[in-house]
């Protein structure tokens, strides 16, 4: 009986060292490929989250300008523009420490405009710029609605959001990555049609 037991155990062989090492190498390669996939997916998720924040900031800015802007004063300023000039509201001269005195004629609350044009979300600094879209205005002028031009009541604008990143000296500069910029188009409407 002992003989049968010894023969059975001798026939039950285990894995050789070479087989174990080969399986470890295969598992390491598969694990490395999966970790690269998950790192890439995490990077994409972070980029999409940042893009969503920028779109929401742009919509918030558009809503703010819609409610706070003096339509007549902005229209007067735009009508004074010469060819090649553009009406722009941005954070130049309107930092997070100084209020936006340059825009007092266009918005009723320039102090809150400072936080709109220089938002900081999740410790990320953004720059907001609102610019007039002359090309869209030309198409509005040709559209006639109930005897009047809709262009008399709407100012087409584009809100651009850019992420600011610190450079070597610690100054905030515009990021050069494509995902770090977002544009939203909209209109500043006259109170008469709201």
UniProtKB/TrEMBL annotation:
<keyword id="KW-1133">Transmembrane helix</keyword>
<keyword id="KW-0472">Membrane</keyword>
<dbReference type="GO" id="GO:0030420">
    <property type="term" value="P:establishment of competence for transformation"/>
</dbReference>
<dbReference type="InterPro" id="IPR012902">
    <property type="entry name" value="N_methyl_site"/>
</dbReference>
<dbReference type="Pfam" id="PF07963">
    <property type="entry name" value="N_methyl"/>
</dbReference>
<keyword id="KW-0178">Competence</keyword>
<dbReference type="GO" id="GO:0009986">
    <property type="term" value="C:cell surface"/>
</dbReference>
<protein>
    <submittedName>
        <fullName>Prepilin-type N-terminal cleavage/methylation domain-containing protein</fullName>
    </submittedName>
</protein>
<feature type="transmembrane region" description="Helical">
    <location>
        <begin position="20"/>
        <end position="39"/>
    </location>
</feature>
<keyword id="KW-0812">Transmembrane</keyword>
<dbReference type="InterPro" id="IPR045584">
    <property type="entry name" value="Pilin-like"/>
</dbReference>
């Amino acid at each position: 009986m002992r003989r049968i037991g010894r023969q059975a155990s001798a026939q039950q062989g285990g894995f050789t060292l070479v087989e174990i090492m080969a399986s470890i190498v295969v598992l390491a390669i598969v694990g490395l490929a999966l970790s690269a996939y998950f790192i890439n997916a995490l990077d994409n998720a972070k980029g999409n989250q940042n893009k969503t924040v920028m779109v929401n900031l742009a919509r918030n800015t558009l809503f703010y300008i819609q409610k706070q802007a003096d339509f007549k004063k902005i229209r007067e300023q735009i009508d004074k523009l010469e060819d090649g000039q553009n009406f722009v509201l941005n954070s130049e001269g309107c930092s997070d420490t100084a209020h936006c005195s340059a825009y007092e004629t266009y918005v009723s609350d320039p102090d809150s405009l400072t936080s709109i044009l220089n938002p900081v979300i999740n410790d990320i600094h953004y720059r907001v710029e609102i610019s007039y879209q002359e090309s869209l205005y030309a198409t509005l002028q040709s559209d006639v609605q109930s005897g009047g031009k809709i262009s008399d009541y709407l100012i087409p604008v584009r809100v651009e959001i850019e992420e600011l990143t610190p450079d070597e000296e610690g100054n905030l500069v515009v990021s050069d990555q494509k995902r770090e910029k977002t544009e939203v188009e909209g209109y500043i409407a006259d109170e008469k049609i709201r």
